[in-house]
Design brief:
This protein is mainly α. It is 79% helix and 0% strand. It is a multi-pass membrane protein.
Length: 96
């Protein structure tokens, strides 16, 4: 049990550092396409959370699945709002 926990913690820390470095090196011009891609991944997380929370009886996995559905949905909606706002910055303004 302890060895599995240490291995899982090691993978988590390594993934965190790698993710931070990758995200930190993204130029601003690529941010919008990557944001759209992460929204698609979060949409997949919503589907997975719906499947996890689909049981009839209430247990810990159903409650965690419900929380995951709510959080992933907030992430998807917020991501699309931010992406739309960024795309509005690139539109030419009509003078009139």
């Amino acid at each position: 049990m302890t060895e599995a926990l240490i291995a899982a913690l090691f993978v988590f820390v390594l993934a965190s550092f790698t993710g931070f470095e990758v995200i930190n090196k993204v130029p601003p011009t690529l941010h919008t396409p990557l944001m759209s891609g992460s929204n698609a991944i979060s949409g997949i997380a919503v589907l997975g959370a719906i499947v996890a929370s689909g049981a009839k009886d209430w247990n810990l996995s159903v409650i965690l699945g419900l929380i995951a559905v709510v959080l992933a949905t907030i992430n998807v909606v917020g991501g699309f709002l931010v992406t739309d706002r960024m795309l509005q910055m690139f539109k030419k303004k009509v003078s009139g």
